[in-house]
Specification:
The chain has about 130 residues and is an alpha+beta fold. It contains two helices and six strands, in the order E-E-E-H-E-H-E-E. Strand 2 and strand 3 form a beta hairpin. Helix 1 packs parallel to helix 2. The longest helix is centred in the middle third of the chain and has 18 residues. The radius of gyration is 14 Å and the shape is globular.
């Protein structure tokens, strides 16, 4: 595969809201674009509920990674963007359950705004390709 960048679009997911792919593979790395809690039609899942949004986002992340031939155990880095740091507890509880003892590197920042009314968080990831 070399250094060629391969765009990855996953059937059954909401199409990207702009000129980007769900993920890209570059050599041995998978870069997953920022994920919001959107269903296949692009409607927000769990408005106002950070835990429900995190559940949906991690499910979407898992689907994208599976389409790339890897899984959550291959995630090396997570990036979290929260509107309100008070939602950190709900996010952390879901993350602990989903990732178990696997502890990817992580960044969490509070942001002034996210796309979509009711959106509370966005998650991006970098994973090892197999």
């Amino acid at each position: 595969m070399g250094g060629r960048v391969q765009e990855i679009f996953v059937p059954g997911l909401a199409p990207p809201a702009g000129p980007y792919a769900h993920a890209v593979r570059c050599g041995e790395l998978i870069f997953v674009s920022g994920l919001l809690a959107l269903d296949e039609s692009g409607a927000l899942v769990g408005p106002g509920d950070a835990g429900a949004q995190a559940e949906h986002i991690f499910g979407t992340l898992s689907r994208i990674l599976q389409a790339c031939g890897c899984g959550l155990e291959d995630v090396a880095k997570l990036g979290f963007f929260l509107l309100d740091l008070a939602d950190r507890g709900a996010l952390s509880a879901v993350r602990r359950r989903v990732f178990g003892t696997h502890l990817p590197a992580s960044t969490l920042v509070q942001v002034a705004g996210l796309i979509g009314e009711g959106t509370l968080l966005e998650v991006e990831a970098v994973a090892r390709a197999r």
